Write the structure tokens for this entry.
Amino acid sequence: MADDDVAGRFEGRVALVTGASRGIGRAIAHRLVAEGGRVVITGRSADSLAEAVDDLGADRALGVAGKADDAAHRADAVAQAADRFGRLDHLVNNAGINPAWGPLAEVDVAAARKILDVNVIAALEWTREVVAAASAAGAPLRSVVNMASVAGTAASPGIAFYGVTKAALINLTVQLADELAPHTRVNALAPGVVRTRMARALYEGREEEAANAYPLRRLGEPDDVAGPAAFLLSDDAAWVTGQTLLVDGGASVRSAG
């Protein structure tokens, strides 16, 4: 929950958060609503989205079901945002997948293309469409946060191609920050292992061992990422763009040694 001094940071603002029916995306949507904002959330499951909207408040949230890499879904979500709330101020490109495990020498090429489409190309497409929609509504998009990963900053055994796509997303963040300035800021977050359904294979059955890899001696929780996301989206980060913030429980301190 937001502290009193930031409770109104998103008053009158509207954010579109992809992949927000659960996990990190849902936690970010909660944080934005807690700070006075309204949200349009997307995800593949209509039932999960409906549950999330009930939780967030139907007066503050709108759910639009579909796949992040589907052009018709993106157009529908942006159009519904405009119809319901009349504006778009912020975008969180949180949707991501990883159906391929193992070394790069064994990765299925079709799966690799799908991961690239969802994790990178769709983020670019969402950004272009939301920037255009915000401008059409009369004001430039204020900020974008892309959900990268520590897997995009170093070797990532077992999830190597996922790491490749997150490295691409980090560079996409830099390129968009340059091209969309001065009106729109673009930053990224790179979380370590967060206790979500998507990441279960990285810690399930060995959570204590996995947590001991972090100086803070625990895995991340979705709320640990939601706070930094809200900061980067907000005017408190008005002079921050093109940056990737590591949210990794201190793991990078050790790897840098």
